Amino acid sequence: MPTTKTLRSFGLLIGAILVCIGLWPLLWRAQPLRLWALLPGGALISLALVWPSSLALVYHYWMQLGETLGWINSHIILGVVFYLLFTPIGLFMRLRGRDPMRRTLAPEAESYRVVRQPRDAGHMRHQF
Questions:
Q1: What is the pLDDT of residues 55-89, one digit of tens each?
Q2: How far apart are CA 76 and CA 62, in angstroms?
Q3: How many CB atoms lie within 10 A of CB 43?
Q4: What DSSP character marks residue 122?
Q5: Which residues, including other chains, have CB under 8 Å from residue 23's CB and lie 6 or more apart?
Q6: 35: helix, strand or coil
Q7: Whether residue 128 has pLDDT greater than 80
Q8: In sequence order, what DSSP letters do the residues of 52-63 get, joined into one string?
């Protein structure tokens, strides 16, 4: 069960966002109000100020919606990005013979360590 403070903050924040959405056309475009946003926004703000515990069920469903959207974001969208962006790039690099990690096997090699020239210690003085 969320605390009264959490429920009050939730009601005021979401209510204020809905009220802004409802007033936006009137203030910036001289169009009619969006009552579908104003009425729930006003109700949320009123309940948050008068009786915050009544928002527990709304808060619960809102958090479930957030978790569902988070799952969609992390699994579906990132999966699509991986398979539609990174996979073709990797295949293209393989076709061209590019291997930035130098992952070739050399049984005769003693080590796969890439020897680098040491840098001067002063290169860290002015990093930016």
A1: 999 999 999 999 999 999 899 988 999 999 999 99
A2: 21
A3: 15
A4: G
A5: 33, 38
A6: helix
A7: no
A8: GGGGHHHHHHHH
Amino acid at 96: R
CA distance 36 to 27: 16
Both tokens of 4, joined, read 């009264």
Q: What is the structure's pLDDT at 45?
A: 97
CA 114 to chain CA centroid, nearest Å: 38
- Are the C-beta atoms of residues 88 and 96 closer than 8 Å to each other? no
The pTM of the full predicted model, rounded to 2 decimals, is 0.63
Q: 34-55, pLDDT tens digit by residue?
A: 999 999 999 999 999 999 999 9
Contact 12, 42 (CB under 8 A): no
**Do residues 48 and 11 lie in contact, with contact meaning Cβ atoms separated by under 8 Å?**
yes
Per the rule left: phi > 0, alpha: psi between -120 and 50, beta: everything else, 104 is beta
* Amino acid of residue 86: F
